[in-house]
Amino acid sequence: MTPIVSIIMGSTSDMPVMEKAMQFLNDQKIPFEVNALSAHRTPDAVEDFARSAEGRGIRVIIAAAGMAAALPGVIAASTTLPVIGVPIKGMLDGLDAMLSIIQMPPGIPVATVGVNGAMNAAILAMEMLALTDNDIAARLKDYKAGLGAKIEKANRELAEVRYDFKCN
Predict the structure, then answer these.
(1) Is 121 exposed, middle or buried (0-12, 13-18, 19+ CB in 10 A)?
(2) Residue 31 and residue 132: Cα distance in Å, rounded?
(3) CB within 8 A of 108, min separation 6: which ones?
(4) CB-count burial class (<10 Å; 0-12, 13-18, 19+) for 114
(5) 5-9 sheet: strands from edge to edge
(6) Contact at 8 Å (CB) between 71 and 64?
(7) Which of 26, 28, 6, 8 is CA-nearest to residue 88?
(8) Other C-beta atoms lying within 10 Å of the C-beta of residue 79
(9) 3-state DSSP: the chain helix, strand, coil percent, rounded to 5?
(10) How far is the C-alpha of 63 from the C-alpha of 33, rounded, in Å?
(11) Helix, strand, or coil here: 6?
């Protein structure tokens, strides 16, 4: 099996956040790989990774980083593949990481999800892949339909909750 999504993080300390993306991709049967490389501590390895990703079959990269959060931008500078940045909560509740990832110069875009938004990054990657893969598109439609069904079920259950002054 060849991975089509690559999850890369600046440190394995990002694993607790990024596991949500891994689990989602796994549940959706989307082949992925996971690596820990640092834009500051292993810059040559990051560039090699980014430059070789497309040739290895990768179609979307999800890059997580905290604090200075250079990793997604460094990767985006070295590939034409779409890069989704996940700011990791740390200093300043992740605002510093989010701003570092969002504020990219013209020509080097990084799609950015919310702080610790690994699940949304995986969903966005699936949406990108669904543009050219009918099987993934069908699974995405099923997933999205399931979201609505969960809310409808929760609303029905909420209707059963009783209080003296609750009117519905």
Answers:
(1) buried
(2) 15
(3) 73, 76, 77
(4) middle
(5) 32-36, 5-9, 60-66, 83-88, 111-112
(6) yes
(7) 8
(8) 17
(9) 50, 15, 35
(10) 12
(11) strand
Q: Which two tokens stand for residue 129?
A: 């892949």
- How many other CB atoms are there within 10 angstroms of residue 35's CB atom? 12
CA distance 103 to 115: 15
Amino acid (1-letter code) at residue 136: I
Distance of CA 35 to the CA centre of its chain: 14
Contacts of 55 (CB under 8 A, 6+ apart): none
Is residue 54 a contact partner of residue 80, using CB atoms and an 8 Å limit?
yes
Q: Give me the tens of pLDDT residue by residue for the chain, a chain 168 residues long.
A: 999 999 999 999 999 999 999 999 999 999 999 999 999 999 999 999 999 999 999 999 999 998 888 999 999 999 999 999 999 998 788 889 999 999 999 999 999 999 999 999 999 999 999 999 999 999 999 999 999 888 899 999 998 999 999 888
CA–CA distance, 104 with 79 (Å, rounded to integer): 14
Q: Partners of 85 in the beta sheet?
A: 63, 112
DSSP track, 46-77: HHHHHHHHGGGT--EEEEEEETT--HHHHHHH
